[in-house]
Design a protein that fits this description.
This protein is 54% helix and 10% strand. By secondary structure, it is of the alpha/beta class. The strands form 4 sheets. Strands 6, 7, 9, 10, 11, 12 and 13 form a 7-stranded mixed beta sheet that branches. It has a two-stranded antiparallel sheet with strand order 1-8. Helix 10 runs antiparallel to helix 11. This is Glycosyltransferase RgtA/B/C/D-like domain-containing protein.
């Protein structure tokens, strides 16, 4: 019980101090929660945005956040829900061990550290919530295996709930349920072909959300895209946060422990959890980087796969098991301290950039340009979606929201603002980067003056004028706010050198 309490404390500790959890995409999501909650009461938001409620597989945090935002505000609602996600992830691992009668797994400390894996750090909170809930659902699926008639209708509903939370979390659960069912049948002595067929039939109720996917209107089509080189980057960045040497070393420790567990006779894998881990690792290898309009599809599978693999390890020698448990808890404490320090640093830099927000007129339409490091850089200050906080506090329109039909319910009322109407048009990468969607000078020159009233730059040096019609109104920390004068004339000035 004390170990479980320590694990859960470590899961929430890094998120306690920052007012806004410093996850990369989260400020943009918070802006969306605010718009959905307040649109009916805010004429300023109504002028800029529309929100068309529909059944989509990407609402895990949105639904409770919008409900809570009406009572306590979007920022507090987001923090309360996001704070629970790592704890749910760790609790799900413990519950899986419990239903397999393992007690506390000796490698649970290493597994718990993966609650702060890349997908969570990137701010993919709907997926992270659905993945954490999928672990709890899997525990229930395994425990009800002796009662398949009772289990089928219950988990048809559970599958629908997981799909609503995030479609990729539902897919993760479907794979895990199939693998666990097959392994359980093999434990009972069934031959492999029969076990596989019976497991597929048992999982048919979990496919119910496919009907909603078929009935949904077609979204913006994106081709499947594999990036095999990136998979090695995801493995090295299993615990990617701020300090590359430390994060890679942590991943190496976990890899070495799993390799030893596979090779050494002193270790065994729980057959059911081991099968789940194996199918999730196979999914990571086989899945594309982009699918169904979502990015980083393969990367999202990695942390849950490795966490379940670690939780599946059994140690034959009780003394070795205790030593590994203590080593894992020490590893977790060190990772927790580092993540907490990293979040404090990022939160302070985000707050410095947000000091400009009171200077933005309520209801303004703001072209946001953020000096973003290359995607290949290990860490950043996570400023790319910070304008979402200004949406909450000033009811603005900006060019950093996700408005992909079929994935997000949010839309805007400015078709003429394109291409500066949605993410990632706010991100200005150095020209040497492999990915550079927005040119600073072109954005300042071409932004539609009939729509945009202000320009907000983050991470660029301030200057009196950004262009002949873009005059500095306020500057604070890394942020500068420029007011666009009534003149329609724009300048072709080159961008200022990025501040470092």
């Amino acid at each position: 019980m004390r170990i479980a309490a320590l694990l859960l404390l470590c899961a929430i500790l890094p998120l306690l101090w920052p007012a806004i959890p410093p996850l990369n995409d989260l400020p943009g999501h918070i802006g969306r929660y605010h718009i959905a909650a307040e649109l009916a009461r805010s004429p300023a938001l109504q002028a800029h945005w529309r929100y068309d409620w529909a059944l989509v597989g990407n609402l895990g945090v949105d639904l409770p956040a919008v409900a809570l935002a009406r009572a306590i505000g979007a920022e507090a609602a987001a923090k309360a829900i996001v704070l629970a996600i790592p704890a749910l992830f760790v609790g799900g691992l413990l519950m899986l061990a419990h239903v397999r009668r393992q007690g506390v797994p000796p490698l649970i400390g290493f597994a718990a550290a993966l609650a702060y894996g890349q997908a969570f750090q990137f701010g993919f909170v709907n997926f992270a919530l659905s993945a954490a809930l999928a672990l709890w659902a899997l525990a229930g699926w395994i425990s009800l295996a002796p009662r398949p008639v009772v289990r089928a209708p219950i988990f048809a509903a559970v599958a629908c709930a997981l799909w609503i939370a995030h479609s990729f979390g539902w897919g993760l659960f479907g794979l895990a349920a199939f693998a666990s069912e097959a392994a359980l049948r093999r434990e009972r002595g069934e031959r492999l072909p029969k076990a596989l067929v019976a497991s597929a039939l048992a999982c048919l109720p979990l496919a119910l959300p496919i009907l909603a996917m078929i009935a949904a209107p077609a979204g913006e089509a994106q081709p499947l895209a594999w990036d095999w080189r990136a998979k090695s980057v995801w493995v090295a960045g299993l615990l990617r946060d701020r300090w590359k040497w430390f994060d890679v070393a942590s991943a190496v420790v976990i890899a070495a422990i799993l390799w030893t567990a596979v090779r050494h006779h002193a270790f065994r894998f729980d057959p059911v959890l081991g099968a789940v881990a194996a199918i999730l690792v196979a999914a990571f290898v086989a899945l594309p980087r982009i699918a169904l309009g979502g990015a980083y599809v393969d990367m999202r599978m990695l942390a849950p796969a490795v966490a379940v693999a670690l939780a599946a390890v059994r140690v034959i020698d009780p003394r070795l098991a205790i030593r590994l448990l203590l080593f894992g808890l020490a590893f977790l404490l060190v990772r927790t301290a580092a993540t907490t320090a990293s979040f404090v640093i990022v939160a302070e830099r985000q707050q410095a950039a947000l000091r400009i927000v009171p200077a933005i007129p309520r209801g303004a339409a703001v072209l946001v340009l953020v000096n973003e490091p290359c995607a290949s850089d290990w860490s950043s200050d996570r400023l790319g979606h910070l304008a979402g906080v200004a949406e909450v506090r000033r009811d603005i329109f900006d060019n950093g929201q996700w408005t992909i039909a079929g994935q997000q319910l949010l839309g805007h009322r400015y078709p003429l603002a394109a291409p500066y109407d949605r993410d990632p048009s706010q991100l200005v990468y150095p020209k040497a980067c492999e990915y550079a969607p927005t040119d600073f000078a072109a954005a300042v020159r071409d932004a539609d003056r009939r729509i945009f009233t202000h320009v907000w730059t983050i991470g660029f040096p301030t200057r009196p004028r950004l262009a002949r019609d873009a005059i500095r109104k306020a500057a604070d920390g890394p942020s500068t706010l420029y007011r666009i004068a009534a003149s329609q004339e724009a300048s072709g000035l080159s961008p200022p050198a990025p501040s470092r």
